[in-house]
Here is the input.
Amino acid sequence: MGRPGQADAVRLVIDGRETTAAPGTSLLAAARSLGIDVPALCEDGAPPSEAFAGCRLCLVEVEGRRGYPPACATEAEEGMVVRTSSPGILRLRRANLELLLAAHPSACLACADRAKCPEEKPGLRKSEETTGCPQCPADGRCRLQALAASLGPVASRFAPAVRGPGVRREDPFIDRERALCVLCGRCVRACSRDRGAALLTFAGRGTERSVEAALDRSLLEWGCRFCGACVDACPTGALAERGARTAPAAERVEPIVCPLCSLGCRLRAEVRDGRILRTSPDPEDPVGRGQACVKGRFAIREIVHDERRLRTPLVRRGGRLAPVSWEDALDAAAEKLLSVPPEARGLVFARGMTLESLRAYETFGRDALGTAEAAAWPALAAGRGAAEKVRLDDVASSRTFLVLGTDLPTTHPVVFTRIVAALRTGARLILAGPGPASAARNSVLSAEVEAGQGGAFLDEVIGAIAPAEPRSRPLFRATGFDEEDVREAARLLADGGPVAILAGADHVAIEGGAEFAGRMRTLARVSGGTAAVLPMSINDLAPAGLPAFSGGASDILNRARSGALRALALAAPAAIGAKAKPSILVTISTHSGRATEFADVVLPAASFAETGGTFVDARGIATSFAAVIPPVGSARPDVEILAELARRMGAEASGRVVSAVSATVAPGPVARSLGGGSQVPDRTAFSWRLIVRPDRDVDRGLLMHHDLPAFRRIRDPRLVWVEADAAAHEGWKDGDAVTVETSEGSWPGVLRLSSRMAPGMLAVRIVPDDPAAAGLGGRGTRPAFLRRRA
Amino acid sequence: MPRILARTRLVPNVHVLEVHAPEVARACRAGQFVIVMPDERGERIPLSVAGWDAAAESVTVVFTTAGTSTRKLALLEPGDEVAVFVGPLGRPAACGRFGTVLLVGGCFGIGAIRPIAAALREDGNRVLVTLEAKSPGLVFWRDRLRQVSDAVSVAAREVTQGLVDFAGAEIRRVLEREGRLDRVVAIGCPSLMHACAEATRPLSIPTAVQLTPIMLDGTGMCGACRVSVGGTVKFACVDGPEFDGHAVDWEELFARRAAYVEEEVRSFCAWEKERFP
Here is the structure.
């Protein structure tokens, strides 16, 4: 942070101790580096020039200066003599603390009987509003409590003036309670500076001042992504995680790897009595760097402790699933699977499981089931196969970002936070793709490019930057994007320093796969930078243990539904209905779901949090972690279940399942061949063109958008996005019930108008293996009808 | 089904609910309670009656939001209905001419002491009221209680700052000022009632408390509300809710009230997830 002409370090004296500090260091940081504890509430690591300096608790004395400057906002200077503690400083700090406490429900801090409350009033955890510490979601973790304890006395001479009223619960995941807010602004800065969202702001004046979303609307209305950074920044309980409001204090904190997207962030799981109380980002995590997303922050506890967790083995008897012992369930499963010949058996398992489980399933399919029809879901489609190891630090150090058709804040949240950090220092973001993009507010250019026209768009941009560059396809008059956008993108890319061109593998598949990825690389070459096809799910970069079944998981499921496969062992989300089920269905699942309902045997599996294991992230790096809690009920790890099942189906196989797991190694560099080609959409007869994006928010059998109510609110899987003008022309409105029809099938949805879509375009997200959307792959666009339902 | 006439948040976590219940309003006496089921899926919970108006056919209860059922009640609006609203239940509070009576109310108890104060005053007692709260901002109905008493004082911990034996100090202060106290009635959380009873025990002032154990049917059938008073088992629903505070086995009461806290928290979280996704 040094400026030209400045020394490398300044020397100063703090509390009689000599020290050196880099120029630009705050007195607060310099004091803390000496182990001197200076109280502070609003400080969040910002340099002195950007310090908020609102709590006025870190006041110090500097010789030769009048008054008491705040240490957070004062730069260490050569020769300074600083005192962090004196009767005058303490008097002022206490007075400032009293002012804070007067506006806070702080009676408990002064109560002599407080120790009795946990025993005499255990139900206080269920209170509606916070009027004291035992009711507060931050009890035991509150900075104000800690300060009151260290600064004392806690009595406030000022008349209590608590803001209110009530707790705002209109948003998912996050409760906002004005009464607890100390106006430190850490949440405001986390939202804007760290996440690039800037949804929280100060509102009102004087005693009515509070932190709100603008115009008193909900965060949801403003498009909040609910990353939870504000909750983590809050030093009190003013912003609280709803699902952890009643949680007692944690017994221990364990590292865990999040498997809910391709990035594999390392999180901290707070644990007590065999339950995960909350998960929060780990500041030491090289991927997330102290930032998480809605899934890592709020979903893991919900998934692991969901009411639909299977706790005991079930076997169908007399038409109904009945609880049985593990012995009986395993015997029944083995007997049923053995009752059909190997070629009539199939196996589908979720790719999002630990690497150990994946190896066990692969080996189980080959050696115990003896079938070739075993595959992980979701399949690595041609374009997804192009996904490559992401060098996050290279990406983050770029100055111009071109993101193609991928809503990074949703699909790769912490990649986006790294981009936001770069944008803060003047880097620029360009978006180009079909449909709405939540990052548009952070971009300098957001170009609408129709699905299927992305390659042509890149061609045009390449041509504009490097006219001599050979085109990968003959020149023709391209449609589906604006020529002005091409020129602007080319201008930004050509003169903006190192460039990073990013696209999710899903979008690359939609645009035609290898050819499109090739154009990304060409553009990166001519504009000076890197291109990366981002993997979409955890373990996408895991090396295959066995040759994958050529037809893939969808084909196996379809054959099972049609009866071509008579027995199916299933450990993945799949739509199995009463009329479309194999004669034998054994599910190995963490949650009850659509398939377990029709299963003959249900074997409850332990979740990733209960087994620990290894996940391969988007950097191609394998990270292992230990189990953080014991399995719920009598659930068992997949590996154990498969070994037991294999033993019953033939002793030899069991040993191989176990040894396959122990042979699991960290993967080296992964090279994948590019495949696939573009698909020309049929534009006849149908009035709309449909872009289908697969829904990736899945953990094994649990579909987050479907099964977790709060997720339904932020990412409603039923939404059908439609271009606003065309929709308005038809007289359609947001929220209209519609049916989308294609030649492959039809399914119901709810209309959402968007001004950021090309005319005639529809976009939907489909949940995995949705029978209504059977046959819809992720590639290109397809013709569709849109019909309004009564 | 009984219809809600009004519902207002008085202070944080405390609401007043006015329900159309003609039969209850006709028969109610001070110190009695009603059993309420917020909806058909809900549990039955006892709530002290804070007022009634036979002519208007309405009954008023003041309640503290302390779990799933009370949170449900706190979301009701005029015109909504509750599944069950039965009463009056329990024995009325002991009335008669005692002399000088101090009523201590905390949380919902501030509402619940109002009819008792009115009845005691009608019987010719000098009625003093102390409203207890963590903070002065959590006290309500000062004016309403002034209408039925001779003096109202507020005891707020936030103001007295760190005082040990908070309730005892308050009672002794009143005793010093008045010269005599012939009876104390305490209604609120068990901690408050226990503290009052312990403060008056050495002073030998008869002290009535209104117990709030877990209760299901409210008519003496289930026995969920068992309490030990003077060494014998009593049912708070039919033998109480008013008991001699010096004879109550407080330790047992606290333990029984906490018996299902983890289940209550689970129920609360499940409801909250459904109601506020």
Notes: The longest strand of chain B covers residues 3-11. Chain B touches chain A at residues 9, 12-13, 65-68, 71, 74, 134-138, 156-158, 161-164, 166, 189-191, 194-195, 254, 257-258, 261, 264-265, 268-270, 272-274, 276-277 (CB under 8 Å).
